[in-house]
Amino acid sequence: MTSPMSCDDAKGLFAEYWSGSLGEREEIAFEAHIAQCEACRRDADQLGALWRNLELIPAEEPGPGVRARFYDSLAAFRQGMESAPKRSLRDRLMALWPAQPAWQMAISFALLVIGVGAGYELRPGAAKIAPDGQESSQIAQLRGEIGNMRQMVALSLLQQQSAGERLRGVSYAYQVPASDTQMLSALLATVNTDPNVNVRLAAVDALRAFGSSPVMRTAVIQSIRKQDQPMVQIELIDLLVDLHETDARPELEKIAADGQINEAVREHAKVAMEKLR
Amino acid sequence: MNATGQVTDNAVMARVASGEVAKMAVLFERHHRALYRYFISMNRNRELSEDLVQDVFFRMLRYRASYDANQSFTAWMYQIARNANVDQAQKRKAEVVGIDEFDDRRAEPASAAPGPEEIAAKGQNIALLKRALERLPDDKREILVLSRFNDLKYEEIAAMLGCETGTVKVRVFRAMRALERVYFALQKEKSA
Ligand SMILES: [Zn+2]
After folding, report:
1. Could you give the dihedral angle defined by the CA atoms of residues A260, A263, A265 and A267, in that order, rounded to the nearest 10 degrees?
2. Which residues of B, range 90-119, sit inside 8 Å of A by Cβ?
3. Shortest CB distance from A15 goes to which of B37, B53, B173?
4. Residues of B with CB below 8 A from A33's CB?
5. How far is A159 from chain B (nearest CA, A)?
6. What value does the mean pLDDT of chain A take?
């Protein structure tokens, strides 16, 4: 036989007593205790009644949109996995052809002009490849026009009310020359202030095209602590690592030591510091 | 497979981790309601809670490789949920809500819709109990929600919170005592 149960021992058994999940021997010992301990008997009965009533509180149900949103993002995630890792988001964004005919026309026109300006590639950073001096002035002018067109489309889309339209705006940012500072500042503003986390994540990805810009690098370093979403913070840190931005180290060090910041982000910052050594 | 013939959560998640991400749908169907209930119990904000449910499934997809099939899926999922909720709470700390405003928000239709069991005196008691639960400090409310509403095993709660199972059981007991105090205080308030 074990020695009689104390009130302290009993404390750890109430929860299972109420839910009827005590083992047989424990139950016998517990019942023996409450039979001779008035205080614990009171708790077992009174609190037990509350425990049972808790179950009667109606469950609050999520709205019907939750399921649809989940299946949408699962599909997007799978699509992203099937494409090459770095390009996935971009490809996915490219698939978002504008719904409005006006935009479709503008883009079609832009694509037509691209066709005329033979040899020009629809690739981020392509503008950097050909040294500026070697272009004929005609082609340079044409490129300028294409750039303006894309910029106009992208900047307007970034101002739209709906997150979907803004996502499209980000997708066009991939087609703007990396030297376009207006586009760069629009993307940075999106990263820092867009209310939708998916739009912010997409904008971080689009910033990769501006990798050579010191303005962009500095802005990204400063943006991390302004973000409220750990996912965005992690993306920003990854971007700095991919760019081998060693100037980010002091800020990463602060982030790693900042108790206010999400633990996973802090860990990530630590790993990033190692990589940027 | 478990007793009810279902493939266990752990097995499903292991397949997700190995690349069959479409299987996440199974886990979504099994758990999204309970997750929502956890979040709404913690933050009383429907829209935010729905966002957090999405966030949890997104994080599980993203960090699927970190899942250890030998550990309880439920504990892992709620650990992620808890982190997501804490991240949000930190963000919202700036906008501290006053008690009065707090009460107003409680009166939202979501919580006011009476079920068939909520009638007459019994119904009032349940409504009062719900309010008492909402007034509990976060840690006490959390442990009751997890053990009572979300049916987590004490071992799972312990794994999630990073403490001993025995500690969890004692904390459940203490949370029930606190709940009783708030419940009676509210009852007095009401009859006064
Ligand atoms: Zn006792």
Report:
1. 130
2. 90-91, 110-111, 113-115, 117-118
3. B173
4. none
5. 23
6. 77
Contact predicate A216/A184, CB 8 Å = yes
Evaluate whether A128 touches A178 at the Cβ level (below 8 Å). Answer: yes
Q: d(Cα A33, Cα A40) in Å, to the nearest integer? A: 8
Chunked into runs of 10 residues, chain A (277 residues) has average pLDDT values of 81 93 94 96 95 93 92 84 52 49 52 42 38 51 56 71 73 70 83 82 82 86 87 87 89 91 87 88
Domains detected in chain B? 1-97 (1.10.1740.10), 114-192 (1.10.10.10)
Measured N-to-C along each axis, helices B46-62 and B24-43 cross at an angle, to the nearest 10 degrees, of 140
DSSP secondary structure string, chain A? -PPPPPHHHHHTTHHHHHHT---HHHHHHHHHHHHH-HHHHHHHHHHHHHHHHHTTSPPPPPPTHHHHHHHHHHHHHHHHHHS-TTTHHHHHHHT---SSHHHHHHHHHHHHHHHHSTT---STTHHHHS-GGGS-HHHHHHHHHHHHHHHHHHHHHHT-SSHHHHHHHHHHHTTS-TT-HHHHHHHHHHHHH-S-HHHHHHHHHHHGGGTT-HHHHHHHHHHGGG-S-HHHHHHHHHHHHHTT-GGGHHHHHHHHH-TTS-HHHHHHHHHHHHHT-
Cβ contacts of B103-106, under 8 Å, gap ≥ 24: B105/B44, B105/B45, B106/B44, B106/B131, B106/B134
CB < 8 Å to A55, chain B = 148
What is the per-residue pLDDT across A218-266, written as a single tens digit (0 to 9) for each? 889 989 988 888 888 888 998 898 888 889 999 999 999 998 888 888 9
State whether B126 and A71 contact (CB < 8 Å): no
Q: What is the largest CA-CA distance in chain A?
A: 100
Q: Is the pTM of this model over 0.80?
A: no
**Cβ contact, residue pair A74, B173, below 8 Å:** no
Q: How many residues does chain B have?
A: 192
